[in-house]
Amino acid sequence: MSSDEKCWEITWDPTTGIARTDWLPGAVCGIDEARDVDAEIKALGQDKVLSLVDLRQVASIDRPAREFFMDRNPNYRAVALVAGSASTRMLANFFLGLKRGSIPVKMFTSDADAVAWLQAQP
After folding, report:
1. pLDDT band at residue 35, thresholds of 50, 70 and 90?
2. Rounded to whole angstroms, how far apart are CA atoms 60 and 81?
């Protein structure tokens, strides 16, 4: 993936009210990508969003990016991390082990469970 290509896709589902971030196969997320994802979420114009983040294809997310995501509370109501393999579950658990912010964050292995949990959030 060249440096000028996005390594993620963000979609807005008006039916569920969820902003979905899909990291593309082999994606490497640094601080620049983290800031760009956050700006794209904010540009949806939906105030605080419910966010489903699919980590199943991501290769890595560096420490500054992880810390940035955990500190970006103003744009999110709740975040569901979807992980599949042992390595992405480890990455998701690392997110969950970081300092707790003011928003709920939970890991799932299925999209359906993640969506159901997000929709149950206040």
Report:
1. very high
2. 14
